[in-house]
Fold:
Amino acid sequence: MRVKVLGSAAGGGFPQWNCACAQCMGVRSGTLKARARTQTQSAISTDGSRWFLLNASPDLRQQILSSADFVPPAGSRNTPINAVVLTSADVDAVMGLLHLREFQPLQIFSTIAVRRILTEENSLFRVLTRSHPPVKWETLPLDRLMPLIPPSPADRKSGLFCKAVPLNGTFPDYVSESLRNSLSQEEAVIGLTFVSNEKKLFYAPNLPGTGDHWVRSVEESDLAILDGTFWKDDELNAIRKGSKSAREMGHLPLWGDRGLLRQHFRPSKTRRVLVHLNNTNPVLNDESPESRIVRDAGWEIAYDGMELAI
Ligand SMILES: [Zn+2]
Structure:
């Protein structure tokens, strides 16, 4: 399985367009040893010719154009992008669907709740149904493997399977109370376990970090790409008083009591990568002590253009 990290920053990107914090100014001026990053987006493929987008970031058009893997085959009006798999209805996870509105047979995999939010509450997303044939929504059941690419009869380990792992998250603020009350909370935020050829990827760019369901998913995977949004729980408060904490926003912070770095994963083979990095997170600075701590603890810090394989 090939995994491409097309974007690695949290909402707003890095630098964030309206932010003059030391890190955003440093990356703008080139005085900080850090890479600029677009908003978090990944894509996976088991054969190099059919790709699955993991979420659809606001920067998706630019991200698709950034890689030769997504160039339409010669003479066609087609795309190697097979489908989109959504982990939540957050703006940063779904806005890029609007970039795909010229798409032909677009397939979107999501929980029922995420589909209902996008189809019943947001008329903007109806542009997706204008294509011929219209967008095809597929339901991801919780805790059950479902085939995205069926295995070939000759090789039952082939194919690509996906399991939705509920992460105890909440629905985005924009969802109306009446709709919210009719949805299953478990379906608000999911992690995705992908399985192919007995290799497992666990993808959770939004990780509230409660419960232990997700810990098992990390331990069982060969590669885990996880939420690295904030270094500290009160990180935003330092910039703007009264801001929500990382945990209140559904992000387990890296540092501090019960932070992600304190999590004890059973000794395992899992390669661990941090993604969805907020512009305030000091790990973005390659020379910061925090970046060193993360790397010394065996984690990798994702960047745009990072390629991984399992
Ligand atoms: Zn900033």
